[in-house]
Amino acid sequence: MKPWVTPADVLTSLVRSMWLAAVGATVAVPVAAQAFPAPPVQRAPAGTRIGLLGFGVRAGADFTGNGAAVFGIAIDAGNLFVNRLRLRPSAEVGILDGPNTYVGNFEAVYRLSGDNEAVTPYVGAGVAVAGHAECATDADCPGVWINAVFGIEVRYRSTFNWLIEYHALDMFRRNRVYLGLTTRRGN
Question: Is 101 among the domain residues?
Fold first, then answer.
């Protein structure tokens, strides 16, 4: 037992008392909730609308040759004339089967159902510029290709979809299959 009280004991006791008072006051005083009125729902305007409206990432295999691993990104860059016709530039890299390949695509994709459906199939076509790691020594490099794309998006969450996509490059001479994840946007 201590025969006397030290200044440190008084300070500790004072700090504890202030802490308990602050906690008690916070708990005892009812806190008013702030009302947050949700903004009104607006439909996306019909017609041409250009901008960064979403993006996706994907990985898969190239079934031409020995089956290179391919990785890609795509950007939802807007609507053309109607909400279902979308501009979709993308980039792809192929590795593990000979020289690394690089493809830059500019495609238009038509969605066969609306964005709010659980499953959304799509088809599209476009042009690409393609090269590979030893492009400087190849007279046919870089190449300009005509592409086709067929895919299905399956709702994953309110803002994301899974995708399964077949990408036919160079007039169906190169065939790639992808699995990926893409952002959703509502109309």
Answer: yes
Position 5 in a domain: no
What are the distances in angstroms from CA 58 to CA 80, 108, 187? 24, 18, 24
In the numeric block, the tokens 């996306």 are attached to 44
Domain that holds residue 179: 52-183
Which tens digits make up the pLDDT trace of 21-53?
A: 766 666 555 555 566 676 665 555 667 888 888
CA distance 150 to 155: 17
- List CB contacts of 19: < 8 A, sequence separation 6 or more: none
Query: CA angle at residue 125 from 119 to 131, to 5 degrees?
Result: 115
- Specify the residue for token string 């659980």: 118
* Interval 80-91: pLDDT, tens: 898 889 999 999
Kindly report the CATH number assigned to the domain that includes residue 115.
2.40.160.20
Q: Which residues contact 51 (CB under 8 A, 6 or more apart)?
A: 77, 78
Domain count, the chain: 1
Tally Cβ neighbours within 10 Å of residue 148: 15
User: Rounded to two decimals, what is the model's pTM?
Assistant: 0.70
Establish if 11 belongs to a structural domain: no
Contact 162, 180 (CB under 8 A): yes
